TrEMBL record:
<dbReference type="GO" id="GO:0006108">
    <property type="term" value="P:malate metabolic process"/>
</dbReference>
<dbReference type="InterPro" id="IPR001557">
    <property type="entry name" value="L-lactate/malate_DH"/>
</dbReference>
<dbReference type="InterPro" id="IPR022383">
    <property type="entry name" value="Lactate/malate_DH_C"/>
</dbReference>
<dbReference type="Pfam" id="PF00056">
    <property type="entry name" value="Ldh_1_N"/>
</dbReference>
<feature type="binding site">
    <location>
        <position position="158"/>
    </location>
    <ligand>
        <name>substrate</name>
    </ligand>
</feature>
<feature type="binding site">
    <location>
        <begin position="8"/>
        <end position="14"/>
    </location>
    <ligand>
        <name>NAD(+)</name>
    </ligand>
</feature>
<feature type="active site" description="Proton acceptor">
    <location>
        <position position="184"/>
    </location>
</feature>
<dbReference type="InterPro" id="IPR010097">
    <property type="entry name" value="Malate_DH_type1"/>
</dbReference>
<comment type="subunit">
    <text>Homodimer.</text>
</comment>
<feature type="binding site">
    <location>
        <position position="99"/>
    </location>
    <ligand>
        <name>NAD(+)</name>
    </ligand>
</feature>
<dbReference type="InterPro" id="IPR001252">
    <property type="entry name" value="Malate_DH_AS"/>
</dbReference>
<dbReference type="InterPro" id="IPR015955">
    <property type="entry name" value="Lactate_DH/Glyco_Ohase_4_C"/>
</dbReference>
<comment type="similarity">
    <text>Belongs to the LDH/MDH superfamily. MDH type 1 family.</text>
</comment>
<feature type="binding site">
    <location>
        <position position="86"/>
    </location>
    <ligand>
        <name>substrate</name>
    </ligand>
</feature>
<feature type="binding site">
    <location>
        <position position="124"/>
    </location>
    <ligand>
        <name>substrate</name>
    </ligand>
</feature>
<dbReference type="GO" id="GO:0030060">
    <property type="term" value="F:L-malate dehydrogenase (NAD+) activity"/>
</dbReference>
<feature type="binding site">
    <location>
        <begin position="122"/>
        <end position="124"/>
    </location>
    <ligand>
        <name>NAD(+)</name>
    </ligand>
</feature>
Amino acid sequence: MTKVTVCGAAGGIGQPLSMLLKLNAQVSQLALYDIVNAAGVAADLSHINTPAQVVGYLPKSKDDKDTIKEALKGSDLVVIPAGVPRKPGMTRADLFNINALIVRDLVANAAQACPQAAILIISNPVNATVAIAAAVLKKLGVFNPRKLFGVTTLDSVRAETFLGGLIGEDPASLKGKISVVGGHSGDTIVPLIHFDKTIAAKVKALPEQAYKDFVHRVQFGGDEVVKAKNGAGSATLSMAYAGYRFSEYVLNSLANKEIPFSIPESSYVHLLGIGASSLSQKLGGPEFFSVPVILRNGQVQSSLDPFSLVQTEQEKQMIETAVKGLLTSISQGTSFVEGLKL
Ligand SMILES: NC(=O)C1=CN([C@@H]2O[C@H](COP(=O)(O)OP(=O)(O)OC[C@H]3O[C@@H](n4cnc5c(N)ncnc54)[C@H](O)[C@@H]3O)[C@@H](O)[C@H]2O)C=CC1
Ligand SMILES: O=C([O-])CC(=O)C(=O)O
């Protein structure tokens, strides 16, 4: 019996992500929470012929504090794509003011209703919202760092797609052969693509500019979608796929399924809390960093040191640059929660 709750389930990401979760036969209960249209999305998905029982949860009023708790009660996995997306001209950091409050409230409710759940944060700016979630859970005395995940999978999905196109490989075959670490915005995103010898040889055969363009495209892939949608939001469908890919990894670990890749999925996690404090020191002190994580039973069992995947001076420098950006975002998230009443 596995219960999954999606918060923000009626949104651009929430709807297709909920559909993918409904297709997973391991899910027995799928709770769809949103402040709009939750019942409609739930009714629609409930007609799909898979085992998950789908229930929509829409708050009855602004002061309704019970519906969200019902949606979260007993959940094993909580996925949070609630919040506002970017419009052209905005950075992810510009979303902080609105999304910080949304994430704070949802995580505070999860802390009470399902303190054992794995929590996946999709809402941007991920570099800061995950720090908010951690600070809230700490304040409420239920922080398990091994179960809090910032979802950075879309960066890996993009890197696989763009590199596959460049070197003439099936993008799907690159999963586990390249890795993306750091954070989830601009130059905090660090693709590492030289540790597999066959891939590295193909990358080295490319003109230097093609490699630079690839890195830039992975780091700013979100902007491409924001621009193309021209005011109608940011990546939703590719993000739903990526969010599902990481959710499925958590669900598989809950079912004790083997990890079929040598280098597992990355996630933006609390380094000290997952037993990687020496990595944090080596990086220059960031509390959070996206690293490949090995999951067991819905939580981080161990992580890989990204420096073991670094092969070039350029990759090392990209990590240094990422750390600078992350330190600022993390302290913004953490100080937002300090002094707040929960
Ligand atoms: N981590 C990542 O790689 C990515 C993150 N994102 C982020 O995901 C978030 C959602 O994006 P979209 O789905 O495109 O936005 P959207 O506006 O289409 O959907 C957001 C949904 O959240 C709901 N919502 C707002 N406040 C809520 C609350 N307090 N409780 C529950 N639901 C609430 C809204 O009603 C809406 O249905 C944005 O912050 C976006 O920047 C987007 C793409 C990639
Ligand atoms: O760019 C955005 O605002 C949405 C996002 O995080 C992405 O597509 O990577």
